[in-house]
Specification:
single chain, about 375 residues, alpha+beta, 9-stranded antiparallel β-sheet, 16 strands, globular
């Protein structure tokens, strides 16, 4: 536990809840906080989630940071706001930010063909652009899809070099012509990570650490490494025939690709949220591009930007994303006009855990 921050322990419905004392607001906010606790605890029970970590931010400042349940079931360790979990695909927004930083520096173009950077690309990729990778309209199939996994495009228990991953992806036929439609593709973001290395000469994770995490003080955020000693690391779990089991093992290299492979906690993600209200990392014009809908060849648009889903909820403009990987799920929703952000992280796999449901329940409370 961070000794610089004071915490109190509250027992609610048999669950240990760590609440940042700094969240104490007016009596009205206190009532909201209690209502949020009840809503999260109900979902924790309904979804059989071992633990949930939550942060609610307004105007870039934390107004509630709380842990519910257990971070480690075997050791009976409570979930706290400092608990480190995995982002899954929420990590894509950091990859997208890195691309925009390089774009602003003139080191790559969003409409450049990816063959400019990945010269060994198959002929089928010759018209794919960086922008199309960012927005999932490239037509390059998702290596993580059920069909691709059945065909053995990659084996999650094997290690691969970046060059070997390119070769493996190249064997998949295009799903459609670039820009024809939208289809979520983890492959595209793995390729973006490779492009970052080709442009900068360094591993994309090192770029994120130097250019984003350190400047923002995100000291608990890093690329996944099961070998490293990671303070406050949570266990990841899955349900098998109703019984809780540990997460499945994934090879080190496939746990470090740019499609979403990060350790972090809700306190660090609150720092990320605060930075997105500023131009510390990129100009406002870059945010305008990141949060604009993907434009298809026929002129229609799809509500997805660069690593962010776009939309409205009950009339409120929101940019959001979910993540799921290796026994963890999470969801981050940023209600832009309301300057409200809700971050939920869980330590249960996506077959059973739906953090977006928790986020929506909490949003309904605060937006009312």
């Amino acid at each position: 536990m961070n000794r610089a921050r004071s915490f109190v322990v509250v027992m609610v419905l048999g669950l240990t809840v760590w609440v940042a004392s700094a969240q104490a607001q007016s009596s009205g906010d206190g009532a909201l906080s209690a209502t949020v606790d009840s809503a999260v605890e109900a979902q924790l029970k309904a979804q059989k989630i071992p633990g949930v970590s939550l942060a609610v931010c307004r105007d870039g400042k934390i107004i509630k940071a709380t842990g519910y349940g257990l971070a480690n079931v075997e050791l009976d360790i409570s979930m706290t706001p400092e608990t480190v979990l995995q982002t899954g695909s929420v990590g894509k927004q950091f990859t997208a930010m890195a691309i925009m930083m390089l774009f602003e520096e003139g080191k790559l173009g969003l409409d450049d063909k990816i063959t400019k950077y990945i010269r060994e690309s198959p002929a089928a990729w010759k018209d794919v652009t960086v922008r199309e990778l960012l927005t999932h309209i490239s037509g390059i199939p998702d290596y993580g899809s059920e069909e691709a996994m059945k065909k053995g495009v990659v084996d999650l228990r094997n290690d691969y070099t970046e060059e070997q991953l390119i070769q493996a992806f190249a064997k998949m036929p295009m799903a459609f012509a670039p820009g024809e439609k939208w289809s979520y593709s983890n492959t595209g973001y793995v390729l973006l990570g490779i492009i970052i290395r080709r442009v900068t000469g360094e591993f994309y994770g090192d770029f994120l650490q130097e250019r984003i995490f350190k400047p923002l003080g995100m000291t608990s955020t890093q690329i996944i490494s099961e070998a490293d000693i990671v303070p406050h690391r949570s266990g990841g779990y899955r349900l098998v025939k109703g019984q809780l089991k540990n997460q499945e093992w994934v090879s080190p290299t496939l746990n470090t690709t740019a499609d979403g492979a990060l350790y972090t906690n809700v306190l660090d993600l609150a720092k990320w949220d605060a930075a997105l209200y500023t131009t510390k990392l990129v100009k406002q014009s870059s945010f305008d591009q990141m949060w604009s809908a993907a434009r298809l060849n026929d002129g229609k648009t799809y509500p997805y930007g660069f690593g962010w889903g776009l939309g409205f909820r009950n009339g409120h403009k929101v940019v959001a994303h979910n993540g799921a990987w290796q026994g963890f799920t999470m969801s981050i929703d940023r209600y832009l006009d309301d300057r409200l952000t809700i971050i939920v992280m869980t330590n249960l796999g996506s077959d059973n855990s739906k953090p977006e449901t928790i986020v929506k329940d909490i949003a309904d409370i605060y937006l009312k």
